[in-house]
Amino acid sequence: MHKYQKAIIIGGGIAGKLAARVLSDSFQEVIILERDSKTEEPVPRKGALQGKHLHALLLAGQNGLEELFPGITEKFLSSGAVKINSTHELAWYHHGVWKFRFDGDYRTILQTRPHLEWHIEQYINRIPNITINYELLAKG
Question: Is the dihedral of CA 102, 67, 120, 48 positive or negative?
């Protein structure tokens, strides 16, 4: 039974969607107000300026997403995300030196921002008390 009646979230990016998921456990209705248009496929959103960048989903983020959306990691991987051994396969230049590579068995999932956000939204769309309203906020 939900303790509270209604939550309104301004912004339907990744943070807004994750907030909606968490709030959906306590509120009867969760409404996300998003200024961008709804997309029918994973494409960069106008409001996400980093939308064309590669995103590295670190283990803690992966574990958090998996807790909120069981099975999402497999969805990422089966639809194009790549899992790498980031201590061995990633070249990292930091503070003027290349970091030492080793087989540390630390895995990172690489994907685009639209790919990541698209899959989160597909899970959000299955939660009956969450609604996303598009093209609502003033464009500035």
Answer: negative
